Amino acid sequence: TDFPDQLYVRKEYKDLFSLLKRRGDKQVVLFGSPGLGKSLLVVLYAVWMATQAQSDVLLVRRVEGKGLTVLFLNGSDLSKCWREQNLSEDNVEALEAATTTKCALCLDGINQVDGLLKKVRLQSFSVLATSGQYKKSQSQAGVVDLCLVPYWSLEDLKAVGRRINGWDDDCVEQKYYIGGSCLRLFLMSIEDARIAILLAVGTVDVSTADLLKTQHGPRSAGQVDSIRMATLDSSKVANYSNPDMWSYAITSMYALGKIGEIVPLGYFKDLCFKAHALNDFGLFGIAFENYVHATAQNNGEIKLWVRDYERQLLHQPKNAKLDYSYATTTITTQSCSYRGHTQEQYEAIMREWTTGLEYWYPAGRSLKTIDAVAKQGDRFLLLQVTKSTSHSINSANLATIASYFPASSTSFMVVVPNKATADAFRFSPSNPSNPMHLEVAYVVDDFFDQFASCDVQGKIQPSA
Fold it and tell me: First vs last Cα of the chain: how many Å apart?
């Protein structure tokens, strides 16, 4: 009953499927945001029960746009299975009553407030997968296990993208920028995912904003959970059914940019802390970059410690720990712009820089080499925000971007979280062919000192 080696199955799926197989007499509710694969787990479990445990299974699914579907799996004789589609709730109740009460009852896409779940027999489900809210009552303690299906990590999405569609890292990161950790959005076209995020963001107002600020937040009853998803430390199987161990986060950078005025800077710090605790390198990068952009948008300035980048390190012992001196600088950002989705739009914004504009960052992810542009006095700073001690530099792309500002001097500045990361930072190649002035900076915020530097493979190093 193990998964075949040729299939890619993330660790969390294996854990949850193992929990389902060992559920005994307990009812299991698979809970999580839409598009994470809960339905797949329920269907796999139903098939496993029929083919391996040789039990009769009744699978009831509510499919968007297709109504209710009932599939009966005869565990003792698979030739006697049947399916009915496009059913009403009364039809489902009648079909369920006509089958043996010894069936394992699996429900998918049905919420706790759904009238169907209030049917007496259907309340005795074996497994329920829901994207809605499920409030576990005291009387259900020891009877119902509420298990979280966590969001997808960037590394897992990269593996899926490579195996299924042959997507390279640039393509994956563009999709991740829009859809975050949602598998369904990841597999959509970028434009369809962007529209889906916009619809979800449109439901966020002052009354729901507090839900977005919580690290261990109350579960909402609205679409906010389409963009605010939950995760956990999967090293302990018990964490899947322990709500105290669940952490909530918005992983779509596009969504974060849209609601930046609602979410305070403290939210992005909490997100960095959470990512560090979970060793989620991708989430840490999202949180830190959005912290920098939100600082520009909300504070009207970005304060940095900065140094010139040394293209050649002379007479340095191998593995020597460097300790540079830095000067303070302030980037004024009273006038910010968050717009542009295509390369043509990016080029137009940079070529026709609006008078008075001090900070621009794109609403899309297809701009290569830089994350933002800031105007500091008479010069333009091409900013790359990263959490790593290394960054691959494309001199040709950088030269092209610099050519959009022919009448001004330009510098390429890397912004990292803390001094430890800034001291260790090197470009790749270490001495780029582009003659542009290069700078390394870190944010003036002691909060980030608690995090160790991150290596280029994406592993967050333990603090000293």
Answer: 43
Q: How many CA atoms lie within 13 A of 424 on its CB side?
A: 20
**Domain termination residue (choose one: 111, 133, 148):** 148
Strands 372-376, 379-385: pairing is antiparallel
Indicate the residue among 258, 292, 326 that finishes a domain: 292
pTM, two decimals, is 0.80
Same structural domain, 352 and 427: yes
Q: Is residue 459 part of a domain?
A: no
Give whole-number Cα distances, 154 to 64, 268, 276, 280, 285, in Å: 27, 18, 14, 8, 11
**What is the distance, to the nearest Å, from the Cα of residue 436 to the centroid of all Cα atoms in its chain?**
34
Strand-pairing partners, residue 252, are none
User: What's the mean pLDDT in 85-102?
Assistant: 69
Q: Is the pLDDT of residue 26 over 80?
A: yes
Asked if 139 and 203 sit in the same domain, the reply is no
Would you call 340 exposed, middle or buried from its count of C-beta atoms within 10 A (0-12, 13-18, 19+)?
A: buried
- Domain boundaries, position 237: 154-292
Q: Average pLDDT of 55-69?
A: 85
Residue-wise pLDDT for 233-273, tens only, equals: 999 999 999 988 988 888 898 888 887 767 778 888 988 98
Looking at 243-378, list the stretches that DSSP marks H as alpha helix, in order from N- to C-terminal side: 253-258, 265-278, 281-299, 343-351
pLDDT, averaged across the chain? 84
β-strand pairing of 426-428 with 437-443: unpaired
Report the candidate in 312, 360, 314, 311 with the shortest Cα–Cα distance to residue 340: 360
Residues 279 and 304 in one domain: no
- How many structural domains comprise the chain? 3
- Count of other CB atoms within 10 angstroms of residue 318: 4
